[in-house]
Amino acid sequence: MAAQPPDDFELQRVYSTERPPRAALLGQPNTGKTTLFNRLCGSRARTANIPGTTVESRVGLASATHGALEIMDLPGIYGLSLEVPESKLCRDCLDGRIGDVAPDVAVIIADATNFARSLRFAAHALRRKMPCVIAVTLCDDARRKGFSVNAAELCACLGCAVVITSGRTGEGVQELADAVLRAALHGISLESFEKRMHHLPSSSASESDVTKWANDVLAEVASGRMSASSSVTDRVDRALTHPVAGLAAFILVMGFLFAAIFWLAQFPMDALDFIFGTAGAWVGDTLPAGALRDLCVDGIIGGIAGTVVFLPQICLLFFLLSLLEDSGYLARAAFAADKFMRQFGLPGQAFVPLLSSHACALPGIMSTRLIPDTKDRLATILVAPFMSCTARLPVYVLLISLLFAGYPGLAGLAFVGCYATGAVAGLLSAFLVRSTLLKGPARPMMLEMPPYRRPSVKIALWVMYDRGMLFIKNAGTIILAICVVMWWLSAYPKVAPSVEVLNMRAQTVQAQQQPNPNPDLVQSLENALILQESRDQQLGSMAGKIGLLAEPLFRPLGFDHQLTVAVLTSFLAREVFVSTLMIVSLTDANDEASLLERLKQNQRADGTLLFSVPTAASLLVFFTLAMQCLPTLALVRRETQSWKWPLLQFVWMSGLAWGMAWIVRETLLSGGL
Amino acid sequence: MVFHPSTVANAGSSLEKRIPLTQLLIGQRAVMDAESLTSLAEADRCLLRAMGVHESCEFKVCKAGSPCIIEVERTRVGLCGSVASQVLVKPCDGCPAS
Fold this sequence. Notes:
The complex is a heterodimer of chains A (673) and B (98).
Chain A: E1 2-3, E2 22-26, H1 33-41, E3 45-49, E4 56-64, E5 67-73, H2 85-95, E6 105-111, H3 115-125, E7 132-137, H4 139-144, E8 147-149, H5 151-158, E9 161-164, H6 173-186, H7 190-199, H8 207-221, E10 222-224, H9 231-240, H10 245-264, H11 266-286, H12 291-308, H13 311-327, H14 329-342, H15 351-356, H16 361-366, H17 374-383, H18 393-403, H19 408-435, E11 446-448, H20 457-491, H21 499-512, H22 519-540, H23 542-554, H24 561-569, H25 576-584, H26 592-601, H27 613-625, H28 630-640, H29 644-670
Parallel strand pairs in A: 2-5, 2-6, 6-7, 7-9
Antiparallel strand pairs in A: 1-9, 3-4, 4-5, 8-10
Chain B: H1 5-12, E1 19-20, E2 29-31, H2 42-51, E3 58-63, E4 68-72, E5 75-79, H3 81-84, E6 88-91
Antiparallel strand pairs in B: 1-6, 2-3, 2-6, 3-4, 4-5
């Protein structure tokens, strides 16, 4: 149902060659705004930062009967005049101070199931001198509860077009698009604006006066009465926010989320790994040997694979988070975690991002968008990479196996210790940053508890698709570029074959040309040759030279120049460390036992063991705490729109890792180990 | 969370006496007045007002303690203990805890 103020405006079909009229959806959180947006724009929507800001907005095209509309879904806000970043952003956007152009129409969302509050919001929004349309959402839900709004009477009361809609059922969506296009083309005259203002409470009215006005309008335009929330909701709320039962439910839900990200995502991740591996092998076999093949296989395909392999975890995380948010549980979960997190200067909402970071810091950092306060969000982003991610696992396995071979109990404890060390370092760093750079306690929790609803799988799939595409687009481009640069540093300049390589080549050729060549021996010689060439190339490359230069920095931790190169190259991604060590130790990449044995026997130039207990322990501590992940730094740069925070994060985490690793090594050395 | 049933019982008989929100019983109704939110920071006060928790609202307590959950009109708002203890309210006469 739609109602328009009377006028003599005749709408003609729009044959504009310019941009379509733009409408901004303006409303409070949990009012069906995003569902309505999805219904209006369908698949023609994309998520993008509002130009000049770090706040995301979804933009899409909607079809009205007489032309197209560009719809912008602004962040949900409780009031336009509030001094919070989202409200300020909405004000700036409506005034045309940010973005390429100001919206032509404001579509004010009024939740039919909470109509008095929506009217108070509308009273403030309608004071802006711009064409406005009121979209009364969730009308199906309200009708089921015996409440309805008369659009014609509301239109007369407010002096602007009113459309009764439901994003879930699609009711009134086409009428809304038509009304918005009509309002955009009609504009607003001084006379009609003054008429509208005449209907509204004055700008100096107190909250009580606005409430009285809203109640009067409600009495005039609405029929029926919304029943109060059920006692079941009260009981569920009491259970989910109870200090013990609430915490138990929280641990259960988050445990499931964590397990799903860790375990379920493994299958598509393996599949992606296989696909990229096959693609790399095919390109490697097809292209002639040379720089182009190396660039395609190691730089481009390797770079894309290293990034896209995390896509299943990101998609799964956002799918599940969307279901949880839609169900109304996340607000309760935030309260369950709040008491513990607050002691470290973080809000309860930080728990989910930090937990997600145990799978991978990238989705964890992306999910900090759930945190409303800027300082709280920034603090969470800064400490998220301390959580032990899956990329650290191969390094933990290798080094713990070296340290505790034959002691499975101690090895298990060491694993737990690594995870605990990361988490404790993260929480203490949060405390430190909230006491210094981002001074102030976490914002006290005051949250609207949305009604419990059956979550929409369709919306969750939309969110998953949207987030996945955003990750591929943003992270993929930046990270890929950095990966290619890092590959170039590792691959150039090309190193001339050393005497050792020439000798090994001669031996390999000799073995191949024997009358009855031993295939195992030939294979072994070929592998040794490839590894030696890789080692020479690595040491002679730009990255290798940087490693040699950096060796004095890592010498106090017990690292020699080869280990330094492995640490530096793993800056691209932590898991690279294991494959680099394979090259350094000149062993078969697939033979873990052989690798471990070889690593144990690896010697320094002075004949002492490279992987002594103190050195292996300091290396383990270093990897537990260090910021060895270029993609994470690139994402933090994108999320904070500044190099300051990722640089600070890198310096702090690397410094702490170095310091703790040194303390551990010195302690063990002084203990006679 | 400290809970004083006696305070609540006494307060219920006098509309003039304000008590911290944390002292209300589950199901009890109360109203706010001009002094109710003055202890809060301006930004928090504005946010609560925008959520419907303003100086002339009547509400029901859905969960006592921390967090305290109240229902204003059709909106349920959760307040952490530190905020709830600073909000002073007047329990309604004739609206005992149910």
